[in-house]
């Protein structure tokens, strides 16, 4: 068994694919940044991300996949689901060994699993387009904290850029400790330590814009007013808005007086 | 700037608007203009979900709940003893922008009680949309209610600023409308619909010739009817919907299960459960008509004027048409595969894509995520040929009902007591 250790980036993974062929590595397991201690009897192969190798693999794939299929591979990577690197590798091997486009071969397990991962990422990025809740600071920055299951910030960047073109905003992924920031011109990736208690009343009083608390209360008020009690359907509610998102959803956070 | 006193108005005017069912913000591709605020996505985004499970994508409010009409099914009816309120034009604009900038909503859905007269009300609705577009450079979604009786000039302007317009037909038949809303009639609703239809078509044609031509209600028009307040059967309801789709180019018809809000003896008593299952079946039938190529006569007819409540309308159709089955998914047309119970629109497309690679067997279908336990009664596979036991449609229905757990099983409304 060979443990292929890469830097955790997509390019790193693509380089790894190149080297697996180059060194004819067999029985692959991927590991991010450091070797897993669980695998006692494996040999390790460390990959250094290499642009030339990345280009060669990607152009090979581009020839054999549709535009969607090519983008899909990256989206599957962002899903961060269990064993996704291995599934992607087997899928890529199948793609490269075929003379026709196989991305619709749903009877193949790896094709199917890959599609599932793509769907998951797609669903999660759609949800993040919906569930981002901006709060306005005194210096007119709209910031939001999210904790998506999949690493979707790279995928939602353009959506927010073309929607909120006239306001500065920051979306911070508190799980992966990085954010995307728009300065009225460009979006850049920023790594910063963000106060995780940013929903507390103290935090809002210190940095929030004057009207911020009122708008949050208005939104909570609206959310309450549109509910029809006689149609209550908790199961459906939870299905659409799973609890794991609640702590960053204004309408699900008690009002200022109810917070710490 | 929005002030505290807006809070009370918001609870009154959001509460009164919640029975309007349209929440969709799709089918309009409005681009962000000149680095302004917002855009509209073709597929729409639901930003939140109420505790009853409905999606919240738009700030759905009434401009006012003052109303000169006295429609029995409406909370805002003149004779109802409720708190009244009215927003100013500026308040609606500020609320919309404040909510939109925080990514709470996709846009605005503005309806209104009729105060004074239709034109007076419509003029204010239009003014809000105009202000949002021209002064705030707002490119998000706007849905305006077209008030029956408003002048063509105002409807024309509404279409220039809004993405979608809707005139509510309220009741599926003239008879029940007359019963519950003596001041209204269907002609008053059909007239503005017709006008809007012609304008939408006309502007589309113009746009084809000149891409700079202005857009007019790019997301088309919709309407809604109240279900279960009066005695119509599903054939009358779907017949009306079909008329709107065919004759008015309606994008959507919404069905709103009546929520008892009145002690009026013409209406179901307070405490009567909302007919949620029937509403759901109507939506399913509606999808079959719009997306699955079904004709309304295949779903309901004089011999069967109501949809089954215990099974979905596609399964119902299949059981009445067993001569169409079994279908071989390896050779059949996409249109026919879409008609197999348990196989949805997307699964049908996947099947057609996947069968190019190999002959599909049942296990492949299961992996594709179709409802195989339901579909299997309607499937044939050339190789290996599976001899399907000759079950009658009643037997199949029994099998399916026994193996599935309906999400409504514990929640059946009073309508089932009829059976």
From TrEMBL, chain A:
Pfam families for this protein: DUF4130
Entry superkingdom: Bacteria
Domain spans labelled DUF4130: 83-251
Protein name: TIGR03915 family putative DNA repair protein
TrEMBL record, chain B:
Keyword Lipoprotein set for record: no
Pfam families xref list: HHH_3, Radical_SAM
Record-linked PANTHER family: ENDONUCLEASE/EXONUCLEASE/PHOSPHATASE FAMILY DOMAIN-CONTAINING PROTEIN 1, TYPE II SECRETION SYSTEM PROTEIN K
Matching Gene3D superfamilies: Aldolase class I (3.20.20.70), Photosystem II 12 kDa extrinsic protein (1.10.150.320)
Keyword Lyase: no
NCBIfam families hit by this protein: rSAM_link_UDG
Keyword terms, alphabetized: Iron, Iron-sulfur, Metal-binding, S-adenosyl-L-methionine
Cofactor needs: [4Fe-4S] cluster
Species, as recorded: Flavobacterium piscisymbiosum
Protein's recorded name: DNA modification/repair radical SAM protein
SUPFAM superfamilies found in the cross-reference section: Radical SAM enzymes, RuvA domain 2-like
Top-level taxon of origin: Bacteria
Radical SAM core domain boundaries: 62-198
